[in-house]
Fold this sequence. Notes:
By secondary structure, the chain is mostly helical. The protein contains 21 helices and two strands. It has helices at residues 3-57, 63-87, 107-119, 122-142, 148-174, 178-205, 207-232, 237-272, 277-286, 290-319, 364-379, 381-397, 412-433, 444-449, 454-464, 466-483, 488-515, 532-544, 546-550, 554-565, 573-611, and strands spanning 342-343, 349-350.
Amino acid sequence: xxxxxxxxxxxxxxxxxxxxxxxxxxxxxxxxxxxxxxxxxxxxxxxxxxxxxxxxxxxxxxxxxxxxxxxxxxxxxxxxxxxxxxxxxxxxxxxxxxxxxxxxxxxxxxxxxxxxxxxxxxxxxxxxxxxxxxxxxxxxxxxxxxxxxxxxxxxxxxxxxxxxxxxxxxxxxxxxxxxxxxxxxxxxxxxxxxxxxxxxxxxxxxxxxxxxxxxxxxxxxxxxxxxxxxxxxxxxxxxxxxxxxxxxxxxxxxxxxxxxxxxxxxxxxxxxxxxxxxxxxxxxxxxxxxxxxxxxxxxxxxxxxxxxxxxxxxxxxxxxxxxxxxxxxxxxxxxxxxxxxxxxxxxxxxxxxxxxxxxxxxxxxxxxxxxxxxxxxxxxxxxxxxxxxxxxxxxxxxxxxxxxxxxxxxxxxxxxxxxxxxxxxxxxxxxxxxxxxxxxxxxxxxxxxxxxxxxxxxxxxxxxxxxxxxxxxxxxxxxxxxxxxxxxxxxxxxxxxxxxxxxxxxxxxxxxxxxxxxxxxxxxxxxxxxxxxxxxxxxxxxxxxxxxxxxxxxxxxxxxxxxxxxxxxxxxxxxxxxxxxxxxxxxxxxxxxxxxxxxxxxxxxxxxxxxxxxxx
Length: 616
């Protein structure tokens, strides 16, 4: 890239900025200037903070402490950098190459311009000065032996920005299909959250954390036993203090050993993972080892250069229309046509598709409604985005519903599992089950004009959401079982109780879908504005539906009460009562569908007007 390319880039950027200023007006210009000033001020503040930390706090730090400090800075930068990447996921370049095609700029020059422009973000403005300030502070406090930190920081930023730029360019080619674009965004968001939650999960529920909790509990019991012996007069105060000091020394020794193992694991991870090469190189620089520093610098630099080279080729293929070139379609072997299939006039073979199948022990009409609705849900991108929310809540906040010391009373364990399952299904499925016909939109006219029993339509709609709801509840129960294992009979009873919970939830959702349908925005699962009464009814449904579901918790309370009175020990009362409860709730559900079917027939014209309206 020569000076002519740079002048062309500055001219294009100036023209685009001028157009944005003309469209935004004076207020927009003032706001943009304020935000720019705040970003620059933030960079100055982080530089000064890094300088002070390196000069004062880390002036005599050990290599391990140095590695942990740089680990914190690197992880923080990658976290905020990935957040910015997900917010800009739909863009492959800051400036499209189309803007340069009519200008005397080479593709490589335009690519480098776009790469440099896309790398300028708030996270870079804050963390790059912080790392430079930290390096300067360490040089001032420890001497010129820390000069390689500048090379390590430069290679680290080159690696991160180049790899993410390649990733974003690859996704740009994958997301040319609008349906695939939202799916990719949902999957990337979920993977990002899961990856950054793994350390938290391992910290609180890993084998080391459980061993430490057990050791702490045993130590507490031993100290309580010593206090009791002292109170009973069996040992003297001197013996008590001596034994207590010995136990504390042993406990501290175990903690030091676990801490040493943790340091060794962290160092091994930094040596193996490329994002950890910067912290590992910083600790090696403190020790005066030049070979590891050089290896870390070359490794990060080669990864960055290789990613830029690969992303350049991908970008050129994308803009020349050769992105899918080289992909060989797998040849489909022709199979003999079975005797029971029908060959059409065009030569194609008619086979039973997904929506043409029939569910066992379900009427043909209800089966058709259920399978058609399920296929529509699985193909809708907004549904995938809405289903991402409960999974995120389950991963992040699932552990907050229970205590971290592992001491949970036996009958609280199934209660935690049921509460978590109910919470997940109400949070995730209220928008679906409480507004079942909104996703049909104008397609609801098919139900109005058909001669199918309205009871069968409601049954089919409830069966549509059954796989999603059961999968979420089983996942919640599995997470609870992993945290706090239940007795086998309690686990079986909890899984059986999922059935009455979902049936009661569907009965309430049917009433809400019939009496208070909500218009949804086109291509989105969000309700259209100016629907105050319907929105209020949905909120009340969300708050009140746990009340009838809470009645299904009675069998657990009965067994807990009998156990506290000493009338039963290991007899599975909870399991037996849940089987009886599931039978009666199922019978009640079948009878209630008849009444709700007549209610649907009376209000179907109103529902059609609401769900087929265009949400603005």
